[in-house]
Amino acid sequence: MKVGDLVRLKNLHPSWGEIALITNINVTKYGLGQISLMSIGCVNGAIPWIKRDTYISEVISESR
């Protein structure tokens, strides 16, 4: 998973949409951080790095 990937979302409010673009990933050396997302219903969304498997089901399209 990296910036520019399209991902399928799960376990979020339906207003976020089903697909999002990863716009930024910040992870500290302690394993904490966040993934910034842009989707049809949430332009500036973010999810915790440690909960990424809870909210992202799969990478649909990888960026180059």
Question: How would you characterize the overall build of this protein?
Answer:
With 64 residues, the protein is mainly beta. It has one domain (6-61). Helices cover 6% and strands 47% of the residues. It has 1 helix and 5 strands. It has one helix at 52-55, and strands spanning 6-9, 19-27, 33-39, 45-48, 56-61. Strands 4-3-2-1-5 form a 5-stranded antiparallel β-sheet. A hairpin with a 5-residue loop joins strand 3 (33-39) and strand 4 (45-48).
Q: How many H/I helical runs? A: 1
Mean pLDDT: 93
Which structural class should the secondary elements be placed in?
A: mainly beta
Please, how many domains? Answer: 1
Order of the strands making up the biggest sheet: 4-3-2-1-5
Kindly provide the radius of gyration, computed on alpha-carbon positions and rounded to a whole number of angstroms.
11 Å
How helical, in percent, are the residues? under 10%
Taken from the alpha-carbon principal axes, the silhouette is: globular
